[in-house]
Please model this.
Amino acid sequence: MKPLDVGPETLDSPKPRIPNFELRTPQFWLRLAVSVPHEAAEVVANFLVELGSLGVIESEKDFSQPQTAFTEVQGFFPAEVSGPVLCEAVTEHLRELLLLFPTLGQPIPHLTEVSSEAWADQWRGHFPLLEIGHRFLVFPPWETLSTIADRIPLVINPSMAFGTGHHATTQGCLEAIEVLSSTHGPPSTALDIGTGSGILAIALAKLGTPTVWATDTDPIALVEAQKNCEANQVADAIHLSDTPVDNVLTSVPLLVANLFSSTLVALASDLERLVSPDGYAILSGIQLDQEADVLAAYRPPRWQLTQRYPRAEWVTLVYKRS
Model:
């Protein structure tokens, strides 16, 4: 397994420009809520962040009730933002998404006004301390921990809905990263494709991987990842980049990709090129009813499935590259 040998022509390390959000505590917030299929939730959540939402959450599941194919995504905006303009922008975005998600239908965004106190309670209530696997403890920056016992702390600011550790796909990836690092030792280098909040790259660095390349095409995600890397004091080990996958030229002993199933299928040849022989790929973002498509794209003799981590309606797959 050769280490990642990457130069400026393959993965540069941009300095993301942090949006100039004015820091303030409004008395009221606008909450925009829209019900969408689970597979479209992340796309819609990211769009709300791009519109200026200072926080996005997904509705919690009530496992005592029959599960539905839809989930509610909520974005929170300062009260002075124009509600009609927000609704019009979201409605137009949903029309465009109908081509990608045929089950989307014609959801209608709803606006309500909430007080700062209600917003804080609802927002923080979605992100309690979370133990994942045998070693990780994920918590938001407003929590103060006097003792962490034998857990590795991952401080993640939940300014985006996904990549906070509370989604099944992120948890599956963290479990897989922990097991691989425990069994084989931390890899010399790793590549996190679609890093989002940076949580998986941060976990790799804290487990001892000295160099982690983390890519994302969303500049807002790179800003959030940068903040989280600094909060976890691993910024020196993690190199953030907006380089597209097809421009990465060299291979790594461990690759993590938490993406849509269709994207994983489309990237199969690229990921085969990016994982060193005898290296591993952790693939997630896979709904159980789409697992067969991914299995068909990652087949022997090039790929050997070594482990799967099912959770709720999602599954994380671990492959060894032959």
In short: The chain has nine helices and 14 strands. The two ends are 11 Å apart (CA to CA).
